[in-house]
Amino acid sequence: MTPAELSEAVLRAVRGAVSGGVLRAEVPADAGVRRPPHGDAQWATGIALRLAAEAGRPAREVAGLVRDGLAGVPGVVRAEVAGPGFVNVWTSGGAAVRAAVAETLARPPAPVLAEDPARDVRAWRAAAGGDPAGLLVQREGNPLFEVRYAHARCRALVREGARLGMGRPEAGELDGGAELALAGLLGEWPRVRETARGGAAGVARYLARVADAALRAAEERPPLPAGDEKPRAVHRARLALAQAAGTVLADGLYRLGVSAPDHL
């Protein structure tokens, strides 16, 4: 379930309440589905807060109608009223992966920085510390190398998929533990980026977690078919997840002032 699909489900819930005579309000064009700033819900909408005055009812009551209208919607695991009138929504694991990937790939790519090892080391060190000489060495244990390597690995997987004629990577429902963990991290990126939580150091720590999760996901659930195996939809979905991880890593590195080459 993508954000757009969930938004439409929320609007259908509102239309149902209006047509059923339990809510008097004009159905808006958009449900305003967003990632919540707190808690473990995957999505939240404040549509009830917008409708309450027109409906002449408390926002939490309107939110309850929306919650009830989401019951039984495929992909929606749970919906709860929160705060003054928000509706928090949890989607199924596979749907959450698809949504996180689709949301990530819909964003414009980060600008490309030319490679400059000295600048890259200075920028990473300013954010996360580290020994300058050690940060120049391309080896495991060097967080700068590990993040840039994970980015290059994600790009390489997508290139190889294209070479194999697998077609365009497509966001799909995946349910592997490593895939779910990676998708969950990707879903945090807008909040990390927009709030600058933890400053540059927080971004560097986040990128290290994404890099580790991306490599683990690609190892546990390979995006490319093996041997004589035919490419399937699940491979394209895994490639889309890898592509989304590479997109987030490139964006984060750019924001730190570090280059993100496609080849290392």
Description:
The chain is an alpha+beta fold. It has 2 domains: 3-91, Gyrase A, domain 2 (2-Layer Sandwich); 112-256, Isoleucyl-tRNA Synthetase, Domain 1 (Orthogonal Bundle), CATH 1.10.730. The chain is 58% helix and 7% strand. The chain has 10 helices and 4 strands. Strand 3 and strand 4 form a beta hairpin. The longest helix is centred in the C-terminal third of the chain and has 24 residues, at 233-256. The two termini are 35 Å apart.
Provide tags for this entry:
alpha+beta, 2 domains, Gyrase A, domain 2, 10 helices, 264 residues, globular, Isoleucyl-tRNA Synthetase, Domain 1
Order of helices and strands: HEEHHEEHHHHHHH
Number of E strands: 4
Q: Measured on Cα atoms, how large is the radius of gyration?
A: 21 Å
Strand content is: 5-15%
- The CATH class of the largest domain is Mainly Alpha
Largest sheet: 4 strands, antiparallel
Protein name: Arginyl-tRNA synthetase
GO biological process, one term: arginyl-tRNA aminoacylation
InterPro entries: Arg-tRNA-synth_N, Arg-tRNA-synth_N_sf, DALR_anticod-bd, tRNAsynth_Ia_anticodon-bd
GO molecular function: arginine-tRNA ligase activity; ATP binding
Helix and strand topology:
Elements: H1 3-19, E1 33-34, E2 43-45, H2 47-55, H3 59-70, E3 76-82, E4 86-91, H4 93-105, H5 117-128, H6 132-136, H7 143-163, H8 177-195, H9 199-220, H10 233-256
Helix pairs in contact: 1-3, 2-3, 4-8, 4-10, 5-9, 7-9, 7-10, 8-9, 8-10, 9-10
GO biological process, one term: arginyl-tRNA aminoacylation
Keywords: Aminoacyl-tRNA synthetase, ATP-binding, Ligase, Nucleotide-binding
Pfam families: Arg_tRNA_synt_N, DALR_1
